TrEMBL record:
<dbReference type="Pfam" id="PF20434">
    <property type="entry name" value="BD-FAE"/>
</dbReference>
<keyword id="KW-0378">Hydrolase</keyword>
<dbReference type="GO" id="GO:0016787">
    <property type="term" value="F:hydrolase activity"/>
</dbReference>
<dbReference type="InterPro" id="IPR050300">
    <property type="entry name" value="GDXG_lipolytic_enzyme"/>
</dbReference>
<dbReference type="InterPro" id="IPR049492">
    <property type="entry name" value="BD-FAE-like_dom"/>
</dbReference>
<feature type="domain" description="BD-FAE-like">
    <location>
        <begin position="36"/>
        <end position="155"/>
    </location>
</feature>
<protein>
    <submittedName>
        <fullName>Alpha/beta hydrolase</fullName>
    </submittedName>
</protein>
<dbReference type="InterPro" id="IPR029058">
    <property type="entry name" value="AB_hydrolase_fold"/>
</dbReference>
Length: 294
């Protein structure tokens, strides 16, 4: 009986996580060879063109990896739901830095890191659109997603493209249908407009000590510190989208800190349902979930 149960469990597990994964180089920048892992359902048909989540991992622009265990788990989940999951690497410009991204890291350097991360993300998006047939992606249904530093990179790539990129026309075909931001923020939410506002999912803790949920300094640096730079977090972004009558889903944890950057696996079905209703069915859903930290 034990052997039978083991075989059944093995077959169920194999079916649930049945996908192909291929790695591609999307850009080479100096000594950095930037790659992306494409996870595709094994049962995909030749002529299928599937929606995609293009994911940027966190790590304070100094660490993390596109194949972190949680990133791999997320990619496998997406293939079960009929998506193609793509997890990217990008330049970790603070790797081996003595200051990290804290208050001793100059604001000008932080801004350039944000800029380069946004450009790397846009280059990855441009690559998958240029190779949409080979990768079997639907270029009209690309959801941009990221965690912590990755969320900052994604938000700035989508909403501040014209602020950070000198020639945005290079990315005119790299468009996004939705965003998932886990503990992310923008340099200036006023760049969100009727022209670029899209359905956005936001997870954030009210007591995040690194990335503010409202309008506050990055890492809560003091005005006389080199790293003093104002960011606008999930509350500000949600309010802006509310004004623009654009769908959003804000999950706010009162007392929550930066752990809200972790992938919310228990909420993924709800998140994808939100995108199905707002992207596919064009519904205007503006939701705020406010819970107390346990």
């Amino acid at each position: 009986m034990k052997h039978t149960l083991f075989i059944v469990a093995f077959l169920v597990n194999t079916f649930m996580f049945s996908q192909n994964m291929k790695t591609y180089v999307y850009s080479i920048k100096g000594s950095d060879t930037l790659k992306l892992d494409v996870y595709t359902p094994k049962n995909i048909k030749t002529n299928d063109s599937l929606p995609v989540v293009l994911w940027m991992h966190g790590g304070g622009f100094s660490g993390g990896n596109r194949n972190n265990p949680d990133e791999v788990k997320l990619m496998k989940y997406l293939t079960q739901k009929g998506f193609i999951g793509i997890s990217i690497s990008y330049r970790l410009l603070l790797k081996d830095s003595k200051t990290g991204s804290g208050c001793e890291c100059p604001k000008t350097f932080k801004l350039d890191i944000f800029r380069q991360a946004a450009i790397d993300y846009l280059d990855a998006a441009k690559y998958i659109v240029q190779n949409k047939t080979k990768l079997q992606i639907d270029p009209t249904h690309i959801i941009a997603g990221g965690s912590s530093a990755g969320a900052e990179g994604v938000l700035n790539a989508v909403y501040l493209k014209h602020f950070f990129v000198d020639d945005a026309s290079k990315y005119e075909n790299a468009n996004f249908a939705g965003i998932i931001s886990l503990a992310g923020a923008l340099v200036n939410a006023n760049y969100i407009s009727e022209e670029n506002a899209i359905p956005t999912v936001l997870f954030h803790g009210t007591d995040d000590n690194l990335v503010p949920i409202g309008k506050a300094p990055h890492h809560y640096c003091k005005p006389d510190q080199l790293g003093y730079m104002i960011l606008e977090g999930s509350d500000i972004i949600a309010n802006k989208l509310h004004e623009l009558h654009t769908p959003y889903y804000l999950h706010k944890v009162v007392g929550g800190r930066h752990e809200l950057c972790q992938i919310p696996f228990s909420k993924l079905d709800e998140i994808l349902d939100f995108f199905n209703k707002t992207i596919t069915d064009k519904e205007i859903i503006q939701t705020k979930h406010i819970i107390q930290k346990k």
